[in-house]
Amino acid sequence: MPETRDLSRAPVAAARDIAPLREFVVAFGRLLDRMPDEPRLLSEGGALLGRLVSRDDWLPDAFAQPHPDHYQQFLLHADSTERFSVVSFVWGPGQITPIHDHTVWGLVGVLRGAEESQGFVRRDDGWTVDGEAVRLLPGDVEPLSPTVGDVHRVRNLFDDRVSVSIHVYGANIGSVRRHMYPAEGGRKLFVSGYSSAVLPNLWDRSAEMRGT
Ligand code: FE
Q: Which of 97, 116, 111 is nearest to 49 (CA)?
């Protein structure tokens, strides 16, 4: 005789409710199913990301941990066919990226703190700043793409606190060969990889099901 399940049992860990991230991932997949052109993808996907980062109550602490020496990149979700990935970037005080490209479309949304993104354009003798740096505050989203500007440098605007941003890319970004552009010239191939081997569990909906 099968064991009777105790439906009243509380979840093992009453962690932060990750439902907003699951809902974002589902909505983003549905958006891609409609195969929008890139402007629509960046605009509608940007609106979805803007909604996700307009509240800061869902990211588990394990995926918001800074490292003293470098910024961290925690994979939160990878689409099963690698159409997109979602990553939390955790910036320690004053941390900064090299000048780099992505080679795929991207959306950057600030969840906590603030960051600055400086675009670059190629000139004969290297890369030069492209206009004003963009300051991103919680809830703000910036699109990236090889078609609208793909080379930038990002830094935590704060020298005394952690900032966190949520990035969405048009690939499994941890498998993409791209480039950084050192100040001394030339370019260096890199694959960014991830800071952790574990992902948050988006799919435990048992508490929701027990409650209905
Ligand atoms: Fe970037």
A: 111
